[in-house]
Design a protein that fits this description.
It contains five helices and six strands. With 165 residues, it is of the alpha/beta class. It has one domain: 3-Layer(aba) Sandwich (Rossmann fold). Strands 2-1-3-4 form a four-stranded parallel sheet, with helices on both faces. Strand 1, helix 1 and strand 2 form a beta-alpha-beta unit. Helix 1 packs across helix 5 and helix 2 runs parallel beside helix 3. The longest helix has 20 residues. The N and C termini lie far apart (40 Å).
Length: 165
Amino acid sequence: MATSLKNLSTTTLKGSKQNKKFTIALVVADWNEAITYSMRDAAIDYLKQHGIKAQQIICKAVPGTFELPLAAQWMAENKKVDAVIAIGCVIQGETRHFDFICDACANGITEVGLKTGKPIIFGVLTTNNLKQAQERAGGKHGNKGIEAAETALKMLLLRSELDQK
């Protein structure tokens, strides 16, 4: 496994004056909340460290990962929201439920981004077990919430750059 050798949440993105104009929404699944709330908190901290003010961060909870795409769409429909970070965690169980939820969520989030033209960031862990989720929500592999927040900022900066051309 490629991720077993490093912490993926290291970043070199610097704060930007442009960041101050962005409003970013987070939709966070309550299911597996010890994992998802850790990712949420890390994402919010990262955004604040990079110039996003607390009042420019909208955070709403949904029951589970399956509900993330619709909540992301509702957030993206808000003209004030520039990007949406969807945070969830699905842990493999004994049934195929895992496959259906992961597939529906990934496809739904992709569809919302393409439909709205706004960055809709996939901050969803799809792990084989709780230990793997913990390792990616503040453990030895970093925190996926940081990676999702960084991705949102990078996509918004790219959009701003392209709009200036």
